[in-house]
Amino acid sequence: MQKRFNWPLWTGCVLVTLLLLLGITGPYLAPYELDFQEKLSSTVVNGKTVITYPPLPPSAEHPLGTDKWGYDLLTLLLHGAPYTVFVTLAIAFIRVFIGTIMGLYIGIQEKTQTWWLSVENAWSYMPIFIPVYFLLAGVTINSELPTASLVALFIGVVAILGTPSVTASIRQKTEQIKETQYVLAATSLGAGREQIIFRHILPQLKEQIIIILVTEIIAIMTLMGLLGMFDLFVGGTYMTTDPVIYKSITNEWAGLLGSYRSFVYGNAIWIFLSPLIAFVVAVGAFTLLAKGLRDQFEQSYNRTPFI
Amino acid sequence: MTYVKQIIGIFLLVIVICGGPLMLTTVKEEVVFAPEEVVTRAIYLVQQIAGGSLGTYYLGDYERSIAEDIIPFAISTFELLFSSVVIAVLAGLLFGLFLQRFWIVRKFQRLLDLVSTIPDFILIFLSILAAVSFYKLTSIRIITLSPTSDAANKWFPIVLLSIGPTIFLLKVISLKYVQIGGEDYIKTALAKGMGIWHVLTHHVYKNIKPFLLADLKKTIAITVANLFVVEYLLNVVGLTRFIFSKSAEYQFNAAVMGLMGIILLSILVYLLIRAILYLFERILVYK
Q1: Tens of pLDDT, residue by residue, chain A (307 residues)
Q2: Looking at the complex, does the CB of residue B249 fall below 8 Å from at least one CB of chain A?
Q3: CATH number for B172
Q4: Are A131 and B17 a contacting pair at CB < 8 A?
Q5: Residue A8 lies in a domain
Q6: Do B47 and B171 belong together in one domain?
Q7: CB contact B118 to A (< 8 Å)
Q8: Cα separation of B21 and B10, whole Å?
Q9: Residue A138 is nearest to which of B20, B122, B196, comparing CB atoms?
C-alpha cells in the first residue's frame, strides 16, 4: 500500500516547534516594554485636530492593536507565551510521568485493585474544571503570593487532579499486555516485577504514552481557557473592585482571552480576536500533532470496513 | 441501601469540593489550609436542611430563599441538559452508525473533525459572535444578552450546548463503526445476503452499544462542563447561577445546593437516556 503524506503530523510538528521557539524568545521579541501604555494623543490631519485614544485598532505601530487601557496586544501575547507553553508542558509531563508509573504498578498486580477502580470511576465523570476552580478560587484572585508560587501551585493542583485519567489508560493497556505469551515466558524464565514492567511492558506502551502526552496538553489548554472564562488565570488574577475588572498578571493566552471576553460584543473586536486566534492556533497545533501521530501509528493495523 | 450510601458519598464529596475556597486561602504571603471552617459551615447547612429550609443566598443585593428558587432553576437546567444529550446521542447514532456508509456523511464528519480542533467553549463563543452578526445583517434576534430579560428562545442555548457532546460521541461511534465493520462476522452476514439495515441494527449496533453506554457518562460530563459556559455566557437562569454568581461573593450554601442539583440531574439524564435506548431497541431492533 502506498503511504499517504501525513500532513497533519508535519503541520502539527512545524507549528509546535514555532510555539516552543515563541515560548523561549517571546519576551525578547516584544516590540514594547510590558508596562508601555498608549495615552490620549492628538494629531493634526488636514488642518483639523484629531484626538486618538485607546483602544487603537491594528496599525503599523501596533500590529495587533491595543486594548482599552492602551497596552500593546502583541507585547502582552509575547510576554504571555512562555507561561502558556511551558505551564501546559510541565503539567502534561508530570501527569504522564506519575500516571504511567502508577498505571504500570497497579496494572501488573495479580488482583484487580477495587479501591483504585472506584477512584477512577468517580473521577472520570467529574468535569475536572470544577474541583480545580474551587481549590484555586480562594488563592488566585488578588493574591499576595508571588507569581512564581502561584504558577507552581497551579501546576501542582492541575497535575495531581488530572493524573487518574492517565493512570486509567496506562493501567488498562498494562492489563492487556500482562496476559500475553511473551510476558508469561519472561515470568517463567524468572523475570522479576521490575524486569517485566520496564523491559517487556513499557516498550510496548511507547506510542500510547506519546499520544497521551499530546492529548493531555490539549486537555490542559482547554481547561486553562475554561478557567479563564470564570476569571481564574494562571499565575494570578488582579481584580479591581470599582469597576469590577479582572486582569491576568502573567498575560497568559487563555487568561487574556478570559479577561477580554466582554469585548466580543463591542466594536473593538480585535481586542478579543487577537488572544482568541493565538489560543486557537496553540490548541490546533497540538490537536494536529495528536491526529497525525495517531494516523501514523495506526496505519499498520487499519482495516477497511466491509459495509 | 447502596444508593443511599452513594448519595451520601456524593454529598460529602460536593461539600469537600465546594469548601475549596474556604479551605485554601491566602493570608499575607502564605497559603493557609483551614478545613475546620468547612466543617462548621457544613454542620450549619445540615442543621438548616433538617429544619426544613435550604438556607438563603444573595442574588445581587437581594437575599432569597434557596428552596424557592431551586425548582425553577433546576427545571431550566434539566431542559438544557436533557435536550442536548438527546441531540448528541441521536446525531451520534444516526451519522456515526446508520448513515455512515454514505460518502456525504463521511465528508460531513471530516468537516466536524476539522471543527473539533477548536475547543468547545471557543465554539460557543464563536456561535455568539455569529448570532450577533446575524442580527446585524437580518435583524432577526436569536439571542438576548441582557441579564434582566428572559432568554429570547430555548433552542439556541440547547444547540450550543449540544455541539461539544455531539462531536465527542460522533467520533467515538464512528471509530467503533470502522473497527467493527472490519470484523469477520460482518463479512459473513453480508455474504449470507442479509440486508444492510439488518446488519446495521443486529450486528453493528449491538456491538457498539457497550461502548456507547460506557462513553455516555463521559458525554454527560462534557455536557455539564459546557453547561457552565453556556448558562454563564447566555444568561440562562439555571443551577449554575448558584455556583458562579456574577456580582456577589462566593456562597457556600448555594454552591453546595447547585452542584448537588447538577449531579443529581445528570444521573437523571443518564437514566432517561438508558430508557430511551431501551425503547429504541424494543421498537426498531427486536420489533
Answers
A1: 456 778 888 888 899 999 899 888 888 887 777 777 777 777 777 778 777 777 777 777 777 777 777 788 888 888 888 888 889 999 999 999 999 999 888 888 888 777 888 777 777 767 788 888 888 877 777 777 777 888 888 898 888 888 888 888 888 888 888 888 888 888 889 888 888 888 888 888 888 888 889 888 988 888 888 888 888 888 777 777 777 778 777 888 888 888 887 777 777 778 888 888 888 888 888 888 888 888 887 766 666 777 6
A2: no
A3: 1.10.3720.10
A4: yes
A5: no
A6: no
A7: yes
A8: 19
A9: B20
Query: How far apart are the C-alpha atoms of B175 and B185, rounded to whole Å?
Result: 18
Task: Residue A228: give the domain boundaries.
Answer: 70-303
Which residue of B lies nearest to A124 if distances are taken between CA atoms?
A: B218
A38 occurs within a structural domain: no
Same domain for B32 and B82? no
Q: Would an 8 Å CB–CB cutoff place B136 in contact with chain A?
A: no
Find the domain containing B276 and state its range.
Answer: 73-285
Whether residue B259 sits in one domain with residue B218: yes
Report the predicted TM-score, pTM, of the whole model to 2 decimal places.
Answer: 0.83
Same domain, B43 and B84: no
Residue A245 burial class via C-beta count within 10 angstroms: exposed 0-12, middle 13-18, buried 19 and up: middle
Grid cell in block for residue B130:
455569529
**Total structural domains within chain B:** 2
Is residue B233 situated within a structural domain? yes
Q: Which of B17, B175, B259 to mutate to probe the A interface, most A CBs <10 Å?
A: B17
Do the Cβ atoms of B235 and B145 come closer than 8 Å? yes
Residues B231 and B183 in one domain: yes
Residue B67 lies in a domain: no
Q: Do A230 and B228 touch (CB under 8 A)?
A: yes
Phi first, then psi, for residue B195 (nearest 5°) are: -65, 155
The interface predicted TM-score (ipTM) is 0.78
The rounded distance, in Å, linking the Cα atoms of B243 and B257 is 9
Instruction: Provide, as residue numbers in chain B, all residues whose Cβ is less than 8 Å from the Cβ of A158.
Output: none
B81 conformational bin, left if phi > 0, alpha if psi -120 to 50, beta if neither: alpha
* Subunit contact B177:A305, Cβ cutoff 8 A: yes
Q: Do residues B81 and B26 share a domain? A: no
